[in-house]
# Entry
Amino acid sequence: MIDTPLSGSEKPLVRARNVYKRFGDNEVLKGINMDVKPGEVVVILGPSGSGKSTFLRCINHLETMDQGYITVGDQQIGYELRAGQLHRVSPAMIAKQRRDIGMVFQQFNLYPHMTVLENIIEAPVGVHGRSKSEAQTQAMELLDKVGLADKANAYPRQLSGGQQQRVAIARALAIQPKLILFDEPTSALDPELVGEVLATMRDLADQGLTMIVVTHEIGFAKEAADRVIFMDGGIVVEEGKPDDVLGNPQHPRTRAFLSRFI
# Structure
């Protein structure tokens, strides 16, 4: 059953309850509960294999859950409520349900045969039905925001990894999402390119965009997060304000993980 929605400012944008996910014999998520408020920046930390990315992918139904539910706004992505029962919906309906969710992946996922500008306008025109001229105007504004206005006609292969990831961020923003998910957005970058992507993400956080960020970048968590969540073994081990979780972790597993970065 879906909980009765909260009213007013109490209502979370994202609500996860009792989320389980198994791949074969490997239970990756073991009952995740989490709320994310509108405008909140939540950073999820944890070792590899802790379930962070799987949980992120469950939010927009790139992975299906075995148990529990996740709602974004008033929708449970991948399902619709009919006569009091949840029913799976078609891929086309899932695409419509994702209209308010942007996602930035580890591996950029830009179309290599399209220019930067064409990559950014693809979803606004093809999925959201905006005019090409309107989408192009917005795309140029976004490219200016991420410092790449001069690369509109370049192809992905002509860009550095950091530039490609900033284009991917602009593409995610082009659908004007209520929520944007970042799945280890700097893990595929050379160390010298990480800073430019994190700077772009900090700017977005300052603008009040709701963000859930899976990352190992402790500095970003300290500077930009409203809340830090530490996951390990498919569960939420500890969560709280960055100063508390990062500066004074209470759980031995959190302390052991953070000791690698000190």
